[in-house]
Amino acid sequence: MGPVEKGFTLLEVVVAVAVLAVGASVLLYVASNSTNRVYQSESRISALQLIKRKVYDIDANGTLNGFTIEEKDKTFDLGVKERKFIVKDKNGKEVLTFYYYEK
């Protein structure tokens, strides 16, 4: 019998590298998806702050951190008034639509 060789075969190394590559790609996907969700959450929070200012007449100009707000009013029977607020980001993309009803 010949001497016992120690170490890894080329096939074992290739399989280990492939497993590590798959694991790393999954981690990168999760990290990028989380970053995107954080940005969306921050955008919605800014949009809600802008709507709150508009509803309570705190800020009359309708802009906050580059977001703009568009307001549409409609009156229904019995004097119910619908106020629709559409918040758009810097690129004009709709971030949030908020309906507010008052009598």
From TrEMBL:
<keyword id="KW-0472">Membrane</keyword>
<dbReference type="InterPro" id="IPR045584">
    <property type="entry name" value="Pilin-like"/>
</dbReference>
<dbReference type="Pfam" id="PF07963">
    <property type="entry name" value="N_methyl"/>
</dbReference>
<feature type="transmembrane region" description="Helical">
    <location>
        <begin position="13"/>
        <end position="31"/>
    </location>
</feature>
<keyword id="KW-0812">Transmembrane</keyword>
<protein>
    <submittedName>
        <fullName>Prepilin-type N-terminal cleavage/methylation domain-containing protein</fullName>
    </submittedName>
</protein>
<keyword id="KW-1133">Transmembrane helix</keyword>
<dbReference type="InterPro" id="IPR012902">
    <property type="entry name" value="N_methyl_site"/>
</dbReference>
